[in-house]
Structure formats: C-alpha cells, structure tokens
C-alpha cells in the first residue's frame, strides 16, 4: 500500500479535520458515479478505493478499534491452545463463538477476564466489559496486554467527557497550553519594559 | 421513547439553527408528501438527527424552499428536503405504526387502534418500499417483548436489542460506510433506551409495568445509569469521529456534546432546561 499521506495529498502530521477534508475532496473527485459511462471508470474506481483505504488507515491509527487486537503469539506466554482458539475467533470478530467457548471453561484466570472483556465490548455490553477489564488488570497487574486494553477503553471514555466539556466552554480554538504561553509572553514583555506581570518567574 | 436527541439551541449559531429547523421541517414535509397529513404527528427530533448524519456523510442534493405550513401559519418556514429525508420519513412511520400495534396488543388501548387505522395507508406504502427494514423492526419489537415477559433485569441486554435495531435502520446504502453507520446507530439506540428507561422509573413503579432499572439489584441506580450512559456516549462519539463528516458538523457536535448532555442533566436532576430558565427570566424582567 502506498503512503496514505501521499494518497490523500496532505502533509505528515495533519490533523483529523484536515484528513477528513482531504478525503472528502478527493472522494468527490474520483467517485465512480461520476465516471459511469466513461472509459476512465476502472481507473477512477481503483483510485477511489485507494483513497478510502488511506483514509481508513489514518483514522484507525490512534483510535480504539476492535479490529486490531493482537493474536496469541505476542501475549503472556501461558496461553493454552484453547485460548489460542478463542483469540483467533476474536480476531475475525466472531465474538459469540468466542464467548460460548469462554463460558464453557471452569478456570477463570486473568486472561479469561481479558478475553471476555473484549467479547463483551465487541457485542455491546460495554459496562460489563469495562468491569471485566478491571478484574483482569487487578489479577495480573504486570501484564502489558491487559493494561493496554484497559487504557484504550479509558481513552474512549475520557475522550467524550473532555470534548463535551470543551464544547460547552466554547474552548474549541484555544487550549490551556495556548493560554499559558500567552501569559508567559506577556510576562516577558512586561519584564523587558521594567515591570513584572507574574512575580514568581 | 422519542426526543432524547436534541440540539442545545443556545449554543448554536443562527444559521446553524436555521439549517437544523430546515431539516426538521423538511422531514415533516416529506412525511406529508409521502404518507399523508396525519403521519406528521409522528414527527420527532431523533429522526432529524439521523437525517443530518446521513446528509453529512453522503452530501445529497438539498432542495430548499420557503413555505407556509399548518403548524406555523404566520411565517414561511425554511424546509430542506433530500433523499435521506424520504428514507427517514419511511422509517418514522414504520416505527410509529409497529409501536402502536405493540401497544394495542399489550394494553388493548383503543387510542392506539384508532391511530393505527389512520396510519394504515401510509404504513403500507412505506412497508412496500422498505420491506427489509420493516421486518427488522417487527423482529426487534418481538425480541424486546420476549425479554420484557421474562422480566430481564440486565439493562445492557435489553438495550442491545434496541441498539441493534437502530444500527440496522441507520444503514442507508449497502456500501463502505455501513459498518460505521451500524455502530453509530447501535450506541445511539442504547443511549435512547437507557435514558428512556431511567426517565420512566417512577411511572413504571406506579403502573407496575416492566422497567429493567426497577428489577436490577444495584445499590445506586443513578450512579449505575450515569455510568452506562457515559460509556455508551463515549463509544458513540468514538464511532462518529471515524466518519469524514464536514457538512453540518457544527450541528452534529452541538447535539452530541451539548444537547444530549443537557437532556441528561434535566432527567437526572429533574430540573428545567437552560432554555426554559432563560425564558422565565426574560418574562420576569
């Protein structure tokens, strides 16, 4: 696959909004509907698919996405063959099958809770999934995989609260950092002129 | 269970508010045009949200016009109609009719039967146009009924059924975005169901009717409900963020970040909304 930034004709490190805008414009330009009776039809379709793939890969990059769970090979080491099977089900998003297998197991260790948590979140039992993730982390505090899962869930949760908070304060453009740096600048200017805005620095 | 997905009027720009009203009035007009005058009684804000999401994603051609209508005879109203308003109008009438049918079956309420007769023609027309969606609605209502009969105390399980329904209704075309739209509808449906159930706790206790919150064994129901809603909204927001929504984005943001928050605040504190408060203050002065 080509570099997604190149495909979307944007610079590296572009913001989400920029990515979305770039996608929109290109998608409009190459939409197959526009080339219905045109010899360029195939070319446009291919280009369209490429844009879509590039967009998807950029948007899912730092997002919580159910599809990019690691397979058993990278995990904790004591994964049994049964757990391997369950993991492969989860990878293809067959959560119900994975859950049936999990429910048949009598020994519930940290990995059990971790895998169950993924299935629960995947099938919409978000709250219960969260509880199970917590249990898994509590049972095996040193396991990075479980912790990452927990952090991903927490990031999703805090994301909404932060954005809603920002929205209601009209802070869409300015952030705390900007405010601080402005203060520091003002302080510097004052000091140059012999005064002092913030006495401690 | 309608009206939980609204704007926060005070935080919108005037032109955004006009656009929102335009989609709302457009849906009303689409209902009238396709399914007759009486179908307009089923108009609601939740469907308007659906229209705006789909419009934002697919950017269909908008037909705008200024017209008078029965509800606002004094001024002409801006109406925005596009192909998604026709789709959502059909969904609206099918949901309303099947809901009434359910009421009639459960409570034998004559009112529901009368309303059903009025909507019958429109419903048949919509059903013919979208038979698959209609089947999904009927099946989901059956499934909900089954869970209600068994006095299911797991609110996540019950709300998942409604979420699945909304998810499937949200899918407008069989294309690349269908998985995304399904997820958005799913979390939105769950949010609506949970908030509606919480809102009805007292009423259902009095009437001795089914409510999963009255059955579940949690010490602090309020905390539990808040937690559930917050989590679902977070997932909804996360899914919405994956779509390339540019057009009407400020309206969508307003609904998700402010309108919904206000609605929850009103229901949890049982207090008045900001708008009413300000209106009262103006009256006082």
TrEMBL record, chain A:
Q: Which residues form a coiled coil?
A: 5-61
InterPro entries (alphabetical): DjlA_DnaK_co-chaperone (IPR050817), DnaJ_domain (IPR001623), J_dom_sf (IPR036869), TPR-like_helical_dom_sf (IPR011990)
- Write the record's keywords in alphabetical order, separated by commas: Coiled coil, DNA replication
A GO BP annotation: DNA replication
The record, for Gene3D superfamilies, names:
DnaJ domain
Question: Per its UniProt entry, which superkingdom is the organism in?
Answer: Bacteria
State if Coiled coil is listed as a keyword: yes
Q: What sequence ranges are listed for the domain J? A: 3-73
Q: What is this protein called?
A: Molecular chaperone DnaJ
Recorded source organism is Vallitalea longa
UniProtKB/TrEMBL annotation, chain B:
Query: Which superkingdom is the protein from?
Result: Bacteria
InterPro entries found in the cross-reference section: DUF5685 (IPR043740)
What is the protein named?
Uncharacterized protein
The organism named in the record is: Vallitalea longa
